[in-house]
Specification:
The complex is a heterodimer of chains A (about 110) and B (about 260). Chain A has about 110 residues and is α/β, with parallel strands linked by helices. Chain A contains 4 helices and 6 strands, in the order βαβαββαβαβ. The longest helix of chain B has 19 residues. Classes of the chains: A alpha/beta (about 110), B alpha+beta (about 260). At the A-B interface, strand 2, helix 2, helix 3, helix 4 and strand 6 of A face helix 1, helix 4, helix 5, helix 7 and helix 8 of B.
Amino acid sequence: MSTIFAVMIKDVISKDLALRDTAQILFQKLEQQDKKDVTIDFADIRSISRSFAHEYLLQKEKSTKKITEVNIPQNIQKMFDIVNKTSTKPRLLEYSQASIMSLKSLQRN
Amino acid sequence: MTFHSLIEQYAIFLDDMKTLKKDGVIDMSKIDFIYPTRLILLGNVILNNPNIHYVMPRDDLVERYIYTCFFNPDTTDNRSYVPFTRLPADPQQGREKLQRIYDIQDSRTPVIGGNDAFTYVVGELVDNMYQHAKFKNGCIVGQKYPTKQFVELCFLDDGITIPKSFENNGQHLEPVEAIIKALNGNSTIPQEKRGFGLSTSANIFVEGLNGEILVISGSGAVYLKKGEAPKCYTLDPSESLQGTLISIRIPFPSPVLNIYPYIE
């Protein structure tokens, strides 16, 4: 009998990993089963949001299980790498330089 | 048929609401063309207030488009780029709706900078709704206009607003200041490496795809377009939005975008 719990993430969630809540649900399910070693298979995953990747890594850090990922597509691994790096956020505009108008100033057609 | 900018559509929606208040009816009879921003705002009011009276457009095509969006969005006749999709408050059900949008896009020619850009921004902005907005009703809709050469994509929720979300975390900011903080990546959830969703999505739209974005939340509105000075509006109580609207316009067609430089 296998001592490893293997899971296809596309079957538990879907091929597109977007919402933080779904990462939390995934790890809740992993914690509920009794095997210590867990393999998460990322085969056929199409996309991942930064938010999901961040939540996944947070949950993995807190998990009591020994987690191994396999078959991670290149674009998915890239997102995990980006989240692991310390990043600066784009500053699109500064409040101190914003000129604030009233909507009534809008000239409508 | 008049071309309306994103903020103009919001102003027209406010006129719709004034008429509703005065005459007790949303009168769409004269609408001969409707863009997603006005559509999503009207849809949110009509679908979530069943006692409201409304008059459908006299123009057959517009009437059929609005009817399909509001009352029959799952039909295969729905040619909307992103079908009018109501998001439930439960994230698990929301995930299923989001997946449907992804699956539809996967079967079509990529539009908004390719599949990576589309799935990233839609996923991040919907996740933001579930993480921050505490909404009862949310929706997404998108349409592409090959002749006018743009795509318009909108996200709307009736939640607590960006300024209120900051206030709940001890930061009392002017409404426009709160929206700018959110656009610059400051999260209302005090956790390391949070706050990238809206800021990187806006970066992709504006810097990466030469698009424009309008964020209206509570009494504030911020509009960004590459190459133009930002426009910020303080809304008086009759103009304020109970929730958050994010409307985006991107040139169509757009080349496939490598999103990683905009999210690192």
